[in-house]
Amino acid sequence: MDFKLGKGGEVKIILVFKGTESIEEVDELYQYLKNKGLFKGNAGEVYANVTNTDKALLLGLGEEDKLTLDSLRKAFFNAGKELAKLKIESVDIEVPELKNICYLDGIQAIAEGLLQSEYSFEKYLSKKKVILSIKEVNLNVIDGKREQSIEAIEEVKNIIDGVFLARDLVNEPAMTMTPKTLANNAKKELEKLGVKVEIYGREKIEDLGMKAFLAVSQGSSQEPQLIVMDYKGNPESIEKLALVGKGLTFDSGGYCLKPANGMETMFSDMAGAASVIGAMKAIAKSKVKKNVVAIVAACENLISGAAYKPGDIIESMSGKTIEVLNTDAEGRLTLADALWYAVKNLNASKVVDIATLTGACIIALGNVNTGAVTNNEEFMKNIKKASHITGEPIWELPNNDEYRELIKGTFADLKNTGGRGAGAITAGLFLEEFVDNTPWIHLDIAGTSYLSKKQGYLPKGATGIPVKTLYYLAKEF
Questions:
Q1: Is-catalytic flag, 258?
Q2: Measuring CA to CA, how many Å separate 434 from each of 118, 245, 274, 308, 399?
Q3: Per the residue annotation, which of 4, 202, 258, 385 is the catalytic one?
Q4: How far apart are CA 220 and CA 378, in angstroms?
């Protein structure tokens, strides 16, 4: 999809708010539709008239006072889908100033909605269902916004490239997306953009003392991989944001085996890893002037004679010992060593970990909000601002000391589960034990990273959440 500034295109997209009295370009058609109740201007409503000489697509934006960036994205996503269905190749959009929305933010929301409409994962289908048709989008922008609009569109294209990369990595089945494949993908996608990518195998991981990470991996024949991606956007600064993604390329639950229907999508348990790789691509492509490092401890959690077991006591890179009460609470063990590596070996100033960590978070928040736990409220305010810009809502969970008591061990320093109650919170607070007071945020994306059915512009399957939020956190905050 190519974006150009100026007029042109075979179909004109006309923006319509609910309650609009008349539309100069196609008023006769609009009055007919309105009187018949066929088009009311509701948010995301689409009516295409492409058979007449004056080809137009009416796009509803809902009530003017309630328009948001996300409703604008969803509306243009619907428009993109309808245009593709009609095999339209070029469109014309006049972009007016919209109430309560920054002009350039609006441009980006329009472009994102159209770009989102192009995504599909059809690699393994013998017959493709999605046929891309929109080749050219002509945007008529207001005076004085031309150069800024070009930059804004280029930025959103880079971000969506990162989102789509994350989706593709997550949607790939575990038989082909092994720890080594994930590492090789990170190297292939990022090194050409100036990101230094280092990949460490079992021997180096042992040398680093990552015993918790290794314990999870030892039931699999696939070698674990520690993936370190370093982007220096501002070499003069000592500030460094670390993004730590959970990288379980398949999770059977280990000896605490998941039921069959709980295992069928566990190839997506590396969505945290995919999101940090996608975010790094967006950050590097846009040449964000910040220093960002991403870390992924990638492995599989399987059963074999070598697999770790309930009742085991394992060490971690930090020196803290952990009682394994549940082998299906494995992601926090890999993240414990990855977080310690970020703060101690890489000297991160701030850390965000992203993980499909708990079913408890899905029970609490469904698939709408990402759950969050933090040790630094100012940092949390910043990521909430980033998530508000992107339409990827985050809900902060409490971190009372009483919850911390639930993860204290009996025969070791910690235990890897605090029980059924407050499971999303205690899992997050377990990770806090490995950041050594560095400003830190934990994002539990168990409910938001993979959907059983499409939701707005988010497809069934991998969503790419929270690539956009991580990008804006790095760039703005």
A1: yes
A2: 40, 15, 22, 21, 15
A3: 258
A4: 40
Cis link prior to 310 (omega < 30° from 0)? no
Query: For position 52, what pLDDT does the model report?
Result: 73
Q: How far is CA 315 from the centre of its chain?
A: 31
Q: For the segment 306-355, what is each residue's pLDDT rounded down to a tens digit?
A: 999 999 999 999 999 999 999 999 999 999 999 999 999 999 999 999 99
99-146 pLDDT, tens digit each:
989 999 999 999 999 999 999 999 999 988 877 889 999 999 999 999
> Do the Cβ atoms of 246 and 353 come closer than 8 Å?
yes
Q: How far apart are CA 164 and CA 176, in angstroms?
A: 18
- Kindly tell me if the per-residue pLDDT of 477 is higher than 90: no
Are 351 and 342 within 8 A, CB to CB? Answer: yes
> φ, ψ for residue 3 (rounded to 5)?
-100, 130
| Mean pLDDT in residue range 16-43 | 93
Which domains does the chain carry? 2-142 (3.40.220.10), 158-476 (3.40.630.10)
Q: Quick check: 375 and 458 in contact, CB under 8 A?
A: no
SS3 384: helix
Residue 200, both tokens: 């460490």
By the 8 A CB rule, do 442 and 346 touch?
Answer: no
Q: What are the two backbone dihedrals, phi and then psi, of residue 439, each rounded to the nearest 5 degrees?
A: -55, 125
Specify whether the CB–CB gap between 210 and 226 falls below 8 A: yes
Per annotation, catalytic residue among 81, 246, 332, 350: 332
* 8 A C-beta contact, residue 361 and residue 444: yes
C-alpha separations of 407 from 215, 324, 327, 422, 429 in Å: 19, 11, 15, 11, 8
Q: How far apart are CA 443 and CA 373, in angstroms?
A: 7
pLDDT surpassing 80 at residue 208: yes
Taking only the tens place, the pLDDT of each residue in 437-460 is 999 999 999 999 999 999 999 999
For residue 38, with 0-12 CB atoms within 10 Å meaning exposed, 13-18 middle and 19 or more buried, which class applies?
A: exposed
Q: Is the pLDDT of residue 224 over 80?
A: yes
Contact 298, 225 (CB under 8 A): yes
Q: Give me the percent of the chain exceeding a pLDDT of 90.
A: 96
Helix, strand, coil distribution of the chain in percent, nearest 5:
40, 20, 40
